[in-house]
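Sequence design from tokenized structure. All designs in this work follow the same two-part layout: the structure record, then the generated sequence. An example of the structure record is given first.
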């Protein structure tokens, strides 16, 4: 039997069920998942069935859903509305931020928002659907374990695979995340909607990056020039802007590979720091001659941290006068959050983190990681 989900539409006082037909009208998949989370598990018979779902609190895109199955596993569900590069990049950043906000949180951090949505406690809701042998105590412990471990599995719900979605899936898989695409077919008649899940083939093996380099304390990369003040303050929701809205870095002396990477790294402007040349400063610090960059974009192979001609390294100064003060987080919290993300090309050195981008894809990943960090900091 082919699994499917029926949703009836009310006309007057009667529920009408009739023959369904294919339709070009889009399905609101986010509403489907929230109202019928079991849809996510229909292609996995015998597995734990998702029983509760809600739009993730503080989701910047409002297209990320938290789903909990009857055994307490937490899953992130991405429901793309648009498939442009900018929209999908923002959605990826939102996924990382959502996972970061719930990583290492207690059971109540997830159960509280669910109770507001469901009108009853999470365990009571799931318990009515969990079947015989279900245990509230075991469920609570499993949710707590899922939150403690982080690295939540991700489901991307789309009607079909096209290049932007395939690129998004490959990008997430390249981060060693457990991600799968779930497709669907949508039929609609006068009074009834039939949604049938279907598997989408998108398996790609994650790639691993090169080992990080070590080095000494950060140094100024170049004379200051090309000043630019981002318009996005810390704590604000980022609205995707066109590439023309991001002034380019001065790529003098950079290789072509580094130029391509720098074209993606300009979106670091969204963090709200003050950009001067290849350095970012906490606003107000850029005018001080003795000020050190809070974030330094390194392309010169002759200066620490000695990037290869095929890569760009971003140095993060996490000290109390730098990123920790700007984000109102401790250096340890910053390091723990970035360390929770599945990125292998990272190394700490004397209070700094070295983030490497050896490909355009890694540059986009780096930007999304730091956007996610900023969103987590903004939400406290």
């Amino acid at each position: 039997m082919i699994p499917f989900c029926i949703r009836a539409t009310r006309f007057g006082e009667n529920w009408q069920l009739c023959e369904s037909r294919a339709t070009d009208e889009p399905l609101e998949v986010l509403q489907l998942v929230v109202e019928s989370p079991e849809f996510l598990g229909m292609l996995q018979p015998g597995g734990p069935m998702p029983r509760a779902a809600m739009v993730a609190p503080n989701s910047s895109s409002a297209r990320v859903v938290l789903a909990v199955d009857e055994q307490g596993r937490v899953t992130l569900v991405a429901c793309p509305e648009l498939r442009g590069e900018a929209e999908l990049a923002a959605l990826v950043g939102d996924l990382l931020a959502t996972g970061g906000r719930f990583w290492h949180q207690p059971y109540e951090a997830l159960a509280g928002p669910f109770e507001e949505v469901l009108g009853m406690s999470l365990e009571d809701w799931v318990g009515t659907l969990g079947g015989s042998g279900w245990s509230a105590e075991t469920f609570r412990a499993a949710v707590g374990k899922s939150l403690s471990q982080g690295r939540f599995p991700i489901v991307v719900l789309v009607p079909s695979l096209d290049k932007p979605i395939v690129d998004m899936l490959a990008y997430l898989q390249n981060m060693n995340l457990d991600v799968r695409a779930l497709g669907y077919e949508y039929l609609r008649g006068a009074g009834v909607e039939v949604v049938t899940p279907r598997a989408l083939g998108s398996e790609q093996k994650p790639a691993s990056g090169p080992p990080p380099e070590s080095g000494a304390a950060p140094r100024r990369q170049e004379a200051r020039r090309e000043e630019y003040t981002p318009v996005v303050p810390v704590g604000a929701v980022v609205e995707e802007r066109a590439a023309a809205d991001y002034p380019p870095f001065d790529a003098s002396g950079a290789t072509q590979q580094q130029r391509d990477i720098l074209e993606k790294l300009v979106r670091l402007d969204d963090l709200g720091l003050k950009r001067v040349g290849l350095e970012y400063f906490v606003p107000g610090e850029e005018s001080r001659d003795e000020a050190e960059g809070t974030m330094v974009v390194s392309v010169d192979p002759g200066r620490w941290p000695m990037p290869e001609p095929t890569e760009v390294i971003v140095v993060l100064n996490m000290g109390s006068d730098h990123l920790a003060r700007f984000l109102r987080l401790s250096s340890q919290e910053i390091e723990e959050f970035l360390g929770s993300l599945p990125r292998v090309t990272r190394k700490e050195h004397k209070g700094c983190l070295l983030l490497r981008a050896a490909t355009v894809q890694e540059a986009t990943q780096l930007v999304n990681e730091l956007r996610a960090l900023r969103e987590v900091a903004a939400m406290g």
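Residues 7-23, 202-239 have pLDDT under 50 and may be disordered. We note this feature because it recurs in several other targets discussed in the main text.
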